[in-house]
Amino acid sequence: MGKDQATGALILVASIVGILVYGWLVFLTGWSMLVLQLTGFVAITGILGILSWIGYTLATTSPPQPIESMEPEPTQRDG
Which residue, 1, 37, 41, 35, is CA-closest to 18? Predict the structure, then answer.
């Protein structure tokens, strides 16, 4: 098994364990409301963080230089 395959297998197993732990916390413990609130907070924070990064980048990046002409220069022929 190659290094990439081992990493993929580890990610697969960790993801399945994460799903099981999350399901257990939400449905089988008294922590369900807190877990759902944290999940919603992290999701919204991630989305708004990405949007704020895009806004910051648009606000602080100077506009590109205009392109002079897209038409090719006429060539002169001897003749």
Answer: 35
Q: List, in order, residues 6 or more apart from 26 with CB less than 8 Å away.
A: 32, 35, 36
52 in a domain, yes or no?
yes
- What digits encode the pLDDT tens for the residues 26-70? 999 999 999 999 999 999 999 999 999 999 999 999 988 888 766
The parent domain of residue 43 ranges over: 32-58
1: which 2 tokens? 């098994």
Pair of tokens at residue 33: 């409301």
Q: How many folded domains does the chain comprise?
A: 1
